[in-house]
Amino acid sequence: MKKLSYLFLLTFLMLFFTGCQEDEPSFPSSDDPTIVVSTNEIYGAPNRKFEIKATLNDDLGLKSVRIQIPELSLDKMINFSTDPLLTTYNLSYFFEVPADRGVSEAFKVKLTITDVSENSIDQDINLRLDGEFSAPAISMITPKEGTVVLLSSSNQLPVNFVVNDDSGIDYIEVKCEALGISEMVQLTGSPQSYTFNKTYTLPVTAAEYVLTITAKDKFAIPNMGTLNLNIVATNEYPAIYLCDQPKGTNLTTDAVGVPMYFHEKVGQDFEFKYYADTDNKEIYFLGQESDFAPHCFGLNSSGDLIDDVTSSAIVLPTKGYYNIKVNPSTLVYTVTKYTPTSQVWANIANGLWHDVEAQRKPFVSVCGAGIQGATWDTWDAWVQKGLHLANNPDNPYQLVGEYTLTGQMEATFTGQWWSPSWRLIRNGIATMSPGENGNAKYPAAPGVYKVVLDTELERAFITKK
């Protein structure tokens, strides 16, 4: 009986070990795995991710790769499937350097590659934390984005900009294929700042051009900075803008409406409706949207209109609505005060949603994108009370509020089921529906903005708070 028990136990153990061997298959001997790293030196920085890139190969199959930086508490094991066997793997692993490390520190990244035959190899990569990752900064002096070159006055295009970079500048390139411009300035001595200043001649025919400026730095892993500028060469102004900001104001920080786009245009006669919110309001006319130069229309010492960045402001004597006409070619302008007769949307802050129209009280909120809390559903516009506009106590034709923008925005100011509603289209124009379709997309830096919807002007002003 004991003999039978012994034989039974022996048979069980043989079956058990046979089963284990089947679960853990063995592989024949093979050559060592190989590794090709993308670089032997990686640059990182505190509180910034860096990437470890390499190509792993094995003639039979890869088992694992281990990534270690003991000083940074990194110990990552990546295991590979053996069914089917993996003979090639492109490693791309990101790791963020702790914020408390110093920029002068350096480490070794240890990679251990093991294949299914238990062959292992090690590969070290140097990691330095003194990396420089910012592209060269290009600061335009002239021209600015959207600059209008009036060919009847001059066909000269001065290009003046400054490039700065901490690691030194390698080269600067100015290109415009349509103008035959392809100029590279190769710099020596790794200067951290360089000023480019050259004047190009435009063709006498009206056209639009894109000027591309590129700068490359001299960091070990080079950074490139690129700026594209749209330039309009024309025999007459395609648009004129009314600006009520002091000279020197950055006109690109606000999202919508600064400076204000014209209302009507016949030939070179431009007409504006404008609201002066104070007495003695100062305004200028601009030939471009993004800057006071090169075309800024104001007054000379004799009170005549001139195109000069040193001109003085036109003063609107009293608070209220004005009809303003200007011709930038003849340098004639007129200013006439008027009293609006359009509908006043009163008591907006006490609006009420109701399915029965007779019991409904109008409210004005916003539907759109890039606005915190907003969707394209008018019910959400009602529920999100922070998006509701209120009446401006100083002007019955203005609805005001504050929005937090999260980036590129588009909007329709709306009540229940789009009644009433003003669609925000191009150039800050807010047309009351039914009207022009097509919401415009406006780039905007994230932040809190003041909102003014002027229902008389049919203009929106969304300005950085």
Description:
- The protein has 465 residues and is mainly beta.
- The chain folds into four domains: 34-128, Immunoglobulin-like (Sandwich), CATH 2.60.40.1930; 137-234, Immunoglobulin-like (Sandwich); 241-338; 348-464, Sandwich (Immunoglobulin-like), CATH 2.60.40.
- It has two helices and 33 strands.
- Strands 27, 28, 29, 30, 31, 32 and 33 form a seven-stranded antiparallel beta sheet that branches.
- Mean pLDDT is 92; it is low at 1-13 and 15-22.
- Residues 1-22 form the signal peptide.
- Keywords: Signal.
Count of helical regions: 2
Query: Which CATH architecture of the largest domain is right?
Result: Sandwich
- The N- to C-terminal Cα distance equals 95 Å
Overall pLDDT score: 92
Residue runs with pLDDT of under 50 for 5 or more positions:
1-13, 15-22
Count of domain modules: 4
- Overall shape: it is extended
In this structure, how is the largest beta sheet organized? 7 strands, antiparallel
Note the beta-strand portion: over 45%
Helix content: under 10%
Under CATH at level 1, the class of the largest domain stands as: Mainly Beta
Q: The CATH topology of the largest domain is what?
A: Immunoglobulin-like
